[in-house]
Structure formats: C-alpha cells, structure tokens
Design brief:
mainly alpha, single chain
Length: 205
C-alpha cells in the first residue's frame, strides 16, 4: 500500500493512508513483534511525509482503533513481558560481549543458507542492479524491523543458542514474504498499476 499510494493524489491518497495506518498497526493484535514493525513504519512515514500533515493524520486515524484496544489490553490484562521480567541485571555485560554477536550472525547465516537461500541471491542482485531499492521506505521498514529483532537476542535472558533455535526461523518467516513481494514489485510493476499502462488505458476509446 505504501508503494501504491505514490501514484495516487488527493482524496484517493488520503483514503489509502487510512488503510496503511490500520494495516501497520494490526500486527499489534498478533505478536509483540508487531510493536517493532508499527514503530518503524510510523517513524519512516513521519520522516518521509512530515510536511504532509493531512496524510499523517489519516495514518494516525487509521491506526487508532488498534492502538486503543492494544493499550487497554496491555494495561488491564497482559502480564509483564518475559524478556523484561527475567532480566538479571547484566544487560550491559551482554551488550559488550562480542561473542554474542558472533553467535547471532553465524546462526543467522546458517539459517538463511539452509532455509532461505534466495535471500542473499536477491540482495546481491539488488546491490548490483538497483541499490537504491534498499533505502526505499518499505525496504527500510523491513530492514530496521529485522535488525531490532536481532538486537533482542543480544540481551535475551534465556540461553542464547536455545533462543535462536526456538524463534529465529519464525522471525525471518514473518518478513520473508514482504521481502519477496517488494523485490518483484520494484523491478516489475504489477499489471494495471504502472504509469505506462494507466496512460494507455486512458487513451483507449
């Protein structure tokens, strides 16, 4: 939706931002990872459209229902997150421990090579053919979200290797479909949405 709104104007663009707000916030209802995704989506859109207050207001309105229900649930029902409750006060030591970063990177590379080998291939192709794709808002949202996911492992109160085995595959799987979609969407416009196709369609009697 972030891609498609770029070719919209006026009321259509504003309505689409309502849906973008709802879609970005809907992940809050599912898992705590949705918090990370929503935060980065909001920050990226705020930076990109900080001069278009009307659009960002529409985005905020679209996310309001989810934010209110999520806030009430967290305040009234949800227990303290286990990653916070189980911390033993050695967070700084973990952050400064280089072995934890090596373990995370090595396990990430092994997991990607074994289950998602297409990711490094597509990333190399992007770097060669169209590196600007990596700094587009949708790619930034996915990239920053994944970096935040990995940062949790640095301070996890659980055994690091166990935590990686238990959840890293799932976290990659959450973002993998969006990565594949964005790759092909940016290289090959969806039929009916390219400017050329729209122009040709408008010229037909």
């Amino acid at each position: 939706m972030i891609y498609w709104q770029q070719n919209k104007t006026g009321t259509q663009k504003e309505r689409l931002f309502l849906f973008i707000g709802f879609a970005a916030s809907a992940g809050l209802w599912v898992k705590n990872e949705g918090i990370v995704f929503f935060v980065f989506t909001t920050l990226i859109l705020l930076v990109k459209y900080f001069r278009s207050s009307r659009l960002f207001i529409r985005y905020a309105i679209g996310s309001l229902l989810v934010l209110v229900t999520f806030g009430l649930f967290k305040i009234l029902y949800a227990p303290v997150n286990d990653l916070i409750a189980r911390q033993s006060g050695h967070i700084i030591d973990k952050i400064l421990n280089p072995h934890r970063y090596v373990t995370i990177v090595v396990y990430l590379m092994r997991t990607v090579a074994a289950k998602y080998p297409v990711i490094p291939v597509l990333l190399l192709f992007i770097l060669w053919a169209k590196p600007k794709m990596l700094i587009s808002p949708p790619f930034l949202i996915i990239g920053l979200t994944f970096i935040a996911y990995l940062s949790v492992y640095v301070i996890t109160p659980y055994n690091l290797l166990w935590h990686l085995k238990a959840s890293l595959d799932r976290l990659i799987g959450q973002l993998y479909p969006a990565f594949i979609f964005l790759f092909f969407k940016d290289l090959t416009p969806i039929k009916g949405f390219s400017k050329h196709e729209l122009a040709v369609e408008n010229e037909r009697p």
